[in-house]
Amino acid sequence: MIIHSFDDASAPVTGPERFYGPRKRLCEICILTFSQVIFSEAQRRFSLREAAVMKAANGDIPVYLFEWEGKTLAICLSGIGAALAGTNVIELNWLTGATKFIMFGSAGSLNHTATDGKYLVPTEAYRDEGMSYHYAPAADYIRIRNCDRVEALFRELGLPYVRGRVWSTDAFYRETRNQVACRQAEGCLAVEMELAGVQAVCDFHGFQLYDFLVTGDVLDTPEYQIGALHGANHDLDKLWIGLDLAKRL
Known about the structure:
This protein is α/β, with parallel strands linked by helices.
């Protein structure tokens, strides 16, 4: 069963050193975006230099470095879903030395009254994906350890936000009405695809994760609403907030 997947009593069969050689020490902070639009804008605005490439059979993922407020930062266009994003974090640490990861993206609202017009600072993530069970003992939720630090940034910047639980799932097309109701009853404000797995990876390896979300599509209305999803995915405000956070870490 998946809940028995966590094994900290034996060594892994392989690791990133077999694919990439010795670990690099290039920077401390890495920004993860899931938006090609945001990533392309970063390429346009900053003097990015390619530092490494994460290799995959379906296409390589380049990793770039740039300078911001006296710091060297890494940035990459992450794979979508907990397994891809979590593996990217492991390889990014190996290729750049980054131990602090700023991650932002979109989510589907389970409580549009609470989330409308606000950023969302996750406090816990329901583990309805596979990655986290290989990196943390089985439990329904995983705590988002740096939520208070992210919340402090939103307070400092005077930006509207709400904090609360989210639901991480691999199965975008199997978010059923009954499951939505169960997660709402537990206080989940939104659903997304990466956070539980990435947090588990970071906890296991001793990395720090700083995550915030913007809700776009809405699941708690009689008819599913997709209208705001494009902006939640691609609006550039998230990049600037992420850079503000990097400046303060």
